[in-house]
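Troubleshooting entry. The earlier prediction with pyridoxal-5'-phosphate gave an output that would not parse, so I re-checked the input for stray whitespace and re-submitted. Clean input:
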Amino acid sequence: MAVIGTHRPTKALIDEGAIAHNVRGEVQRLDDHTELFAVIKADAYGHGLLRVARVAAAAGARGFCVAILDEALALRAAGFTQPILVLGVVSPEYAALAATNHVAVPLVDADWLTAAQPYLDAQHPLAVHVALDTGMGRIGFREVTTLQRVLATVEQTAGIQVNGVFTHFATADDPDTSYFQQQVVRFQELMQAFRVRPRYVHVSNTATSLWHAACNGNMVRFGVGIYGLNPSGRAIDTTPYPLQPAMSVVSALVQCKQIHAGDAISYGATYRAAGDEWIGTVPMGYADGWPRRMQGFHVLVDGQECPIVGRVCMDQFMVRLPRAYAAGTKVTLVGRDGEAVITLQDVADYAGTIHYEIACGIGARVPRITVNAVN
Ligand SMILES: Cc1ncc(COP(=O)(O)O)c(C=O)c1O
């Protein structure tokens, strides 16, 4: 059981109004035949599975995509009745469990179908979305002939029904579209294997739906855009409508002290004070998803950028303050304080990663607090 730190000032603030705005904005861009499925895997990229499911559905999402079967079952247990697709490979032995819960799963190759056969039941047919590997190299069929053979077997099998077909692009967030176009061509070639077009044909993650909407098919798997994050990072700086970031991370100083020239801070004593300095301690560390390599970055204290000094510890880190501040003074790690802003992208840039990893890495120990609630 993950223990949640409700008695500590460190919190992730989740702006439900922003989530609703982002989903609504994309739904309005789609044509009448195209449905938005909200990608809410990994605890909705750290924003909270059930909360985002509720807000996204109210804002126009028609279904959900998750990564693993357990996430789908959690949605069903919470009473969500919308279509759900698991995007990752589900072990064939769970085919019956998926089918009885009306959860669709990917059909990725001939071996998967063979292994699933003993678990298929004509009374509760399993819905599958056929995965096409057009260049991601991750899951799905690569050869038209194999695909034709498997589709023919599926047609003869009462316990399984093709409900969709999909692929995933590797470079939809890249200004260079050459590899993207190659994948589109490959997708069209593989689609020749289908005698009947499945109910759902889908290829679009957020980047594809934002910047290559002509490819969309009749469903989009809209993920990171829900959370107000630009899928390209900074590579493509305009989005068709303004995305509103949904997550902020805040904490408070738990101690403030003065140190003197030569005094050291944190493990390894890597930081030494140049003179008299005020140092504040912030109760968040790498166990909470604030990477150890953030030493040298900054947070906002009272709206001012204050550098992180010394190594980030598992549960705490220290900042240099311009003056003494009382314990309890607000610290913003991600978000806005007055005129100053730190984005998840800023954090990711400094940490040498992408904002996806920072958002879904914010630890289970950090409580998610609703702001701007949508009922
Ligand atoms: C198959 C698939 N579709 C859609 C998405 C959503 O991507 P994004 O969050 O970039 O919209 C993902 C996320 O990794 C995915 O793996």
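This one parsed fine. The chain has a mean pLDDT of 97.
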